[in-house]
Amino acid sequence: MLSRLTRLQAIAVCLLPFVALVAVAVLAPLPFSVAQPGLTANVLGDNRGEPVITVSGATTRKTSGELRMTTIEATGPDAHVSLGDVIDGWFSTEKAVMPRDAVYTGGDTVKEIEAHNQAQMKESQDDATSAALNYLDLSPKDVDVTLKLADVGGPSAGLLFTLGIVDKLDGDGSGGDLTGGRTIAGTGTITANGRVGAVGGVALKTQAARRDGATVFLVPRAECADAKSELPKGLRLVPVTTLKGTITSLRALESGSGTVPSC
User: What is the pTM of this model?
Assistant: First the structure.
């Protein structure tokens, strides 16, 4: 018969490969990114000392309140994300685990991804300008809009850029602010004809919005369920699908009359 010590030694030898495999699984990089609430920026204000929105060729108005675009911060495309990081992210209400390919598109290297994100931002800004001027029936030949927002890429600020341009040029159409003096945040892509598209990461963006003082959050209707999943107290969701519908909802909020949709 094997002695107790011998049996323990045999078990230890058998367990070593298993322990090694577990260690590799825990420490090995995985194809995920861990995201958290990112910065927000008031598109009606300044960023790094420069106006986010500059308009020439048309009379602009002084605005009040804030229109805050929102972002998420994610581990970099070449970051080492382990099983431990993923498990921690899954059980945290302030983090989200997302497939890396869903967060970073457009290339295999950091340089390629950054170039892709900047190209998306430029396209988003062009579409936002077109959507705003189309809504206001203004010609791009007469009105020039410049948008500047440092350290942000991708298309998800499109809706807020558009609302900022409209607010600076027309407000609610009767001299009042689109914001009604509130801090309003949101997210969503925009097309030149004013359609609002989904973006992802909205549960984290609502947290960033409330952290920075927002009381209303504009969310693409298709992402209502995600936005409600971790909705901070004191933040009202307003689902949107078009620029026209968004402005109608903001006017109803400001006036206190009319119907404001909810998720």
Answer: 0.82
